Predict the structure.
Amino acid sequence: MNVEQAVAEAAAKYSNWGRWGEDDVLGTVNFIDAAKRRTAAALVRRGETFSLSQRFDADGPQKGWRRRTNPVHTMLDTGLDAVHGDQGFPHGIGGADDVIAMPLQCSTQWDGLGHIFDHGRAWNGRPADKVVTSEGDQVTGIEHLAAPVAGRGVLLDVGRVIGDGELPDGFAITEEHLTATAEAHGVTVGRGDLLCVRTGRLTRARREGWGDYAGGPAPGLSFWTAGWLHRTEIAAIATDTWGFEVRPNEFEDAFQPLHQVVIPHLGLLIGEMWDLDALAADCAADGVYEFLLIAAPLPVTGAVGSPVNPLAIK
Amino acid sequence: MNVEQAVAEAAAKYSNWGRWGEDDVLGTVNFIDAAKRRTAAALVRRGETFSLSQRFDADGPQKGWRRRTNPVHTMLDTGLDAVHGDQGFPHGIGGADDVIAMPLQCSTQWDGLGHIFDHGRAWNGRPADKVVTSEGDQVTGIEHLAAPVAGRGVLLDVGRVIGDGELPDGFAITEEHLTATAEAHGVTVGRGDLLCVRTGRLTRARREGWGDYAGGPAPGLSFWTAGWLHRTEIAAIATDTWGFEVRPNEFEDAFQPLHQVVIPHLGLLIGEMWDLDALAADCAADGVYEFLLIAAPLPVTGAVGSPVNPLAIK
Amino acid sequence: MNVEQAVAEAAAKYSNWGRWGEDDVLGTVNFIDAAKRRTAAALVRRGETFSLSQRFDADGPQKGWRRRTNPVHTMLDTGLDAVHGDQGFPHGIGGADDVIAMPLQCSTQWDGLGHIFDHGRAWNGRPADKVVTSEGDQVTGIEHLAAPVAGRGVLLDVGRVIGDGELPDGFAITEEHLTATAEAHGVTVGRGDLLCVRTGRLTRARREGWGDYAGGPAPGLSFWTAGWLHRTEIAAIATDTWGFEVRPNEFEDAFQPLHQVVIPHLGLLIGEMWDLDALAADCAADGVYEFLLIAAPLPVTGAVGSPVNPLAIK
Amino acid sequence: MNVEQAVAEAAAKYSNWGRWGEDDVLGTVNFIDAAKRRTAAALVRRGETFSLSQRFDADGPQKGWRRRTNPVHTMLDTGLDAVHGDQGFPHGIGGADDVIAMPLQCSTQWDGLGHIFDHGRAWNGRPADKVVTSEGDQVTGIEHLAAPVAGRGVLLDVGRVIGDGELPDGFAITEEHLTATAEAHGVTVGRGDLLCVRTGRLTRARREGWGDYAGGPAPGLSFWTAGWLHRTEIAAIATDTWGFEVRPNEFEDAFQPLHQVVIPHLGLLIGEMWDLDALAADCAADGVYEFLLIAAPLPVTGAVGSPVNPLAIK
């Protein structure tokens, strides 16, 4: 089967269009409900927090692909100005202030529902050109996800269970790998979960340098997990890689076909470039792979993605 | 007493310098411990979430004071390009992508510990010019707060209890107002709490337009609450105003003297421009003014502030 | 006649489509040739230079209309860091460096040929959606004007000749005003000229504050000068106002109809927000209203406008 | 002699401090006077223009050294929006608009006088920390050079005369090379000239890719040309390399020692990353190596550098 056919077939089989009404702007985040959040909060047993965010700075992995650069953080005022300059403030008060310029998907992020289209169709079947214009996403902007993204987090450390801590580039994580990992962890994955899949790719980047972390070869979800991603009714999935799905992709001349299915057709929330290492080490230590996970995006009006600092609480 | 004396006296009386060791980079966030987070998680009874963030867009309140502008969000790729242009992607996949340029304190935010100095001294007594240079905050950058800022949130709706929903500009919220509000709510404020104080200023801005919301007159904490802020051992305080403390300030020719005491001397985490309205309405309805609050800043390396989407879960 | 009819009629009568071939990317700049530049160079009699640029900084007139802000200039390194910080450079060398974020049309500027469209048509009749995508102007990007924009400059100080130094807002400059001013100056306007029209609007803004300089009422060219602009075969026209044409526009519910004719149909290069005051004072003093004018835009690839520092040499 | 001594000696011997008064903000640009500009204008014989600017876009050579990135140019409105979206404009007018974020020295540029310091001293002996703060260069900001930078340009194509079109990396151009090249060209270099030195480094980058063009090894001026640069009383010098002087520098553990002498002590205007190839080809063809050169920087208030599109007219 070629990639065109594979995408078309998966899109038809796993579509959630209309599932939450014509006006839906949340996609699979609809699977999280209050009851699930209560259960998730009850998972907090120790009170430990884990930030799942990489840092935002000029030393990130971006190399300029499609103008995706690393963040540029600059100061408007500094302690040097406060002490040696003349800030013009009274009674000895001094201040520092700063600005940032960055692609919204330069580091740890959520892909918004307006990020990927299939043959001109956005989430819920809307025409992409009516949804995302130069003024941003007029319909499914990331601001709609400001409140709901908190619930039960589950870590599947596929890198540790299937690999020897780290999966090699090009390794396609299948449904079987996911199931086997869940079983090894003694955890189940289900409706409304915020699923974190660790491949170990970031661990390697940390050790060996970024290299082609942004856009290059990487382990990741197989295209053929689309059915599982649909069937499990998870609310979101996040990985420690640049692009969530395996790269090179599993078809000739293909580019991110799983994105093409799961964002516009499932309405699935995808997280990328998450740092799962500290959390994974803790889970390996205490054998507990579920936790409360809060990952509220920054509500940039009309954004098709958002930087995020996801917080796991065990 | 003039402002110089008042600041000096408060600084001397309420200093936390050295309290958590010479190398401390967390300030009052140290008051949050695992036990407090367990208690906080147990406050989740309904599973409802409330985003306490204003939106980040060009329609914000900033007017350019000290180069603080509103966010500029622009698209790198759009649905229009996907449908009518030539993105150069294969098999019908299309994409949208975006960038942002913004001051880190343009909208809902945390002030980092490197944001304010007193006579050239930063938090814990460090020389401000050794802490914050043009490369950013080398010591207390906001990235150090990536993990811990989650705990028990308490809302004091002073606007509703003391005012008639909204406090007027220039209204100085005193210890007595805070205590009376807590009593009216049937809630206590204590060690490690993340305190949210609603004045109603944002409610008014929403109704009447921004006007001078950014930097102009506003209700806010009285300078004389410094002792209470110290004594209660709260981890953080956030308001729905631009500048947390009352404006005009309570002294002649003064500029944010309470900042000058609580950031460098107490090491207090301050949140500004939070949107507390929906949460306050809910608290008024169910009479419950405590909740789990997660407000992890974006870990911009060396930043002296951070945009944040705080999430309250009741 | 309503604005739709007026635009359509002018577009039909004054079209330059095809005049310089199907592939043309220069428009009326084609009117400048080497001979004209030789003549222009010969106008340099004293060797005095006049910068016709406003400054680029946060104190500019922009108020955020369609995300047009003032420039934000921030430092990456400063003299404070060199002296009191640790830049890490050897043998006592220190440095300062800086960045800017700005709309390309925030201050003194050229409008590129891809800046304005008429009913979906760009310069030379091209479909606007094939010319300017999210990747910029793929055909007539401002970089094509990097070399040729140098020639004979002529100042028509309409503010001084027709007004009393300054024209009032809403004053429509007609062909008669232009002709009378040229006559008063003893200068002719013709093929390949870079025409500068001073209204005095900037002079007033300087005295009274920006107010609505950006986008508000202003004197400017009458819609009915389209024929004159076409017939004179000037290469470019620049004014000291935000929008070149008179505002409010001369039709009900209209927005910049003269732009709609002269950019896509004439291919005319338009300069806005130029500072003509010092030059005008000098011309009034010596009675010479022609000069060598060099106004090479910054070759930002694919840009639809460019900041520029035009230099007049007399 | 070590680099510290070499710099100190050269600084002492070639200092221009005080030469143009205590308040000077122009440095060697003072050497250009009206008479020289008249002579320069008389060099325009054919009326041909040559843009000496590289393009400003994401495909530039910057790799993030000290946060120097390539420009990020994004669209606010496009032809796609005009045709298929809804811009909300009346009577069929449509528009495109854009923004840029860039270091001021990311591409073809002038170094401002506040760009480099020697042991904490800026141009004319001023303390660097009083000159350049977080608010920019308070004294010698590039805006002071808005008007005067126009005069006689001279090209020394050292790459062609001494090399075989291109000099190798690490090649130190000496006074002898400069003199020999001038002689070969039949041109003299003197007071007030704007000197362009072509090494061929950009030609190579164009052929082979950027590689380490930004900051890596390159041919360039020898440290020992400081005396010649002083004695000739040129107003400015520009090269087709990233850093003007030879790299690696001619001393152990050194960084740009010639900058350290010529900017703060001579007050010399330095241009970098100029594109001299088309001009050089023309000069080789017609044997004329002098021309009118206009290179007015963008007057960004307080900037320590500026993008520029230098225009040579022959």
User: Anything to note?
Assistant: The radius of gyration of chain C is 20 Å. The longest strand of chain C covers residues 97-103. Chain C has two domains: 3-65+103-313, 72-101. Residues 72-101 of chain C form one domain.
